[in-house]
Amino acid sequence: MSQTHPVNRLRPSLLSTLPTAVAQPTYDRARLKTGIVHLGVGAFHRGHQAWYTEAALNVKGGAWGILGVSLRSEQVQQQLRPQSGLYTLVQRHGATVTRQVVGAIQDVLSATADNDRIIEAIAAADTHIVSLTITEKGYCYDQANHSLAENHPDIVFDIQQLTDEPLTPRPRTAIGFIVAGLRRRMLAAHGGITLLSCDNLPGNGNTLKTVVLDFARRLDPELSHWILTHQSFPNSVVDRMVPATTTNDLAKLNQDLGVDDHAAVFTETFSQWIIEDQFCAGRPEWELGGAVFVDNATPFEQAKLRLLNGSHSLIAYLGQLSGYLYVHQVINDNVFAELVERYMSEVCPSLQMPAEFNLPNYQRQLLDRFANSALNHRTAQIAEDGSQKIRQRWLETVLTDNPKDFKIHALALAGWAGFLRQVRDDGEHYDIIDPAADGLTDIMRGHQDAPIDKLLSHIGLNEWAAQRPDFVALADQYFQRIQTQGSRATASAVLAGEL
Question: What CA–CA distance (Å, rounded) separates 372 from 329?
Fold first, then answer.
């Protein structure tokens, strides 16, 4: 780890200078061993899983230090390494603000510079968990065929790398790194580990298991069998709003701390983590931070994906079209507030929650979180990668009942299509971020009359669309209305029963 630090950069020797109200690690970081390798060590991981690990370490200690891996750039490494992995987690709700220095992350490796060290870390005997927050697109999962997207150019590259260079491969994807590490682990007879997905996708552990096994099978059936029999892939549900950190956020925090923290994370006070208790090589006592271990995470997953994430996507697309920068601005508009409540009422009949789960209270809690102006959660951030999200957030609900009962879902889908035009209702242009962006925007240019069916087909949802033609037609009708009347006026008309 680098020993060169700017004079005022947050680091262990400066912890004693921080204000007394700032919580600090209570365990001996110098004695901490690495037990977790985490792929995708961005803001969400630092605000969620690392925070839970910190809670467990503060109470019980243990060999559960985190080695972070940055897969896409060296930025996070440059933020955290000069600070010896330390960063401040700031929780905000209204006027309530708390600050805590988190020390669970020991170091960060970069996929562009530390290739073999990452593979070796996954294979290391002391590693017991490999966890992931790599977003939906990071799994290279073919939703239509429920398998690894074997024709994805990065997967093709990785399979060739692991075939041609078995000792020193240089994979590009998280899946390639995992399989390379597990192959080395098998050859070293280091035993199995738990592979824990912490991303917002249905059956995230099952999805991870599918793509890892499919990839390994292409290399060596014996490796695939070893992975199947020695690793575990629990499903989990993660929930915490972690907006992108702004320059103003950092400037205010650093002024308060008296040191410069380049890696600080800003979150809401709410946090939830529900995990299937299927760990084959031990785990931290995350329940000390409030995590809940269950036999089956599916009901909680569906509630979270459809109610929170589905509402968020509805807010993001219609909010972007209406010119709202932040979630709280959208929810403070009475038309969109009612729209979100009506959306939730369409979702709830599709959920089968345990008797002890208070669904009305959960909905009220979500609306309160959306209205939290202290977060400044950007609609543009939530709107990213929609092609990877809309099936699990909206469309699976529509399959559960008659499509005529899902007018708000049809409006949400129309809002996504409108968003792909990259023009707000006031005529202002913006860019979009989506792995399928080029094809989707081409469709929007060529099919301004009824684009929904073509958009769904482009992202592998043609069979879904064929099951709900009336719903698709209604979404096209709403799309046309958005083009002529604007998103807010269209939402108002739908709520009034005029459409």
Answer: 10
pLDDT digits (tens, 9 = 90+) for 297-313: 999 999 999 999 999 99
Tokens of 405: 């009962």
Summarised one tens digit per residue, pLDDT across range 262-289 is: 999 999 999 999 999 999 999 999 999 9
Residue owning tokens 């020991």: 106
- How far is Cα 100 from Cα 272, in angstroms, rounded to an integer? 18
Q: Strand 236-239 to strand 272-276: parallel, antiparallel, or no bridges (unpaired)?
A: antiparallel
Q: Kindly calculate the radius of gyration of the chain based on its CA atoms and give it in whole angstroms.
A: 23
pLDDT in tens, 342-398: 999 999 999 999 988 999 999 999 999 999 999 899 999 999 999 999 999 999 999
CATH number of the structural domain 12-294? 3.40.50.720
The pLDDT of residue 71 is above 70: yes
Q: Please state which of the four CATH numbers 1.10.1040.10, 3.40.50.12780, 3.20.20.140, 3.50.50.60 is assigned to the domain occupying 298-495.
A: 1.10.1040.10
Please report, for residues 158, 160, 166, 172, the alpha-carbon distance to residue 153 in angstroms, rounded to integers and kept in the order given. 9, 11, 19, 10
Choose the weakest-confidence range: 133-147, 180-194, 377-391, 397-411.
397-411
Domain positions in the chain: 12-294, 298-495
Report pLDDT for 123.
98
Q: Any idea which residue has 């979180």 for tokens?
A: 369
Residue 124 has a pLDDT of: 98
> What's this model's pTM, rounded to 2 decimal places?
0.91
Q: Shortest CA distance to 305 belongs to which of 270, 274, 268? A: 274
The rounded distance, in Å, linking the Cα atoms of 190 and 494 is 59
Conformation bin of residue 19: beta by default, left when phi > 0, alpha when psi is -120 to 50: beta
Residue with the two structure tokens 């962006």? 437
pLDDT at 155 over 60: yes
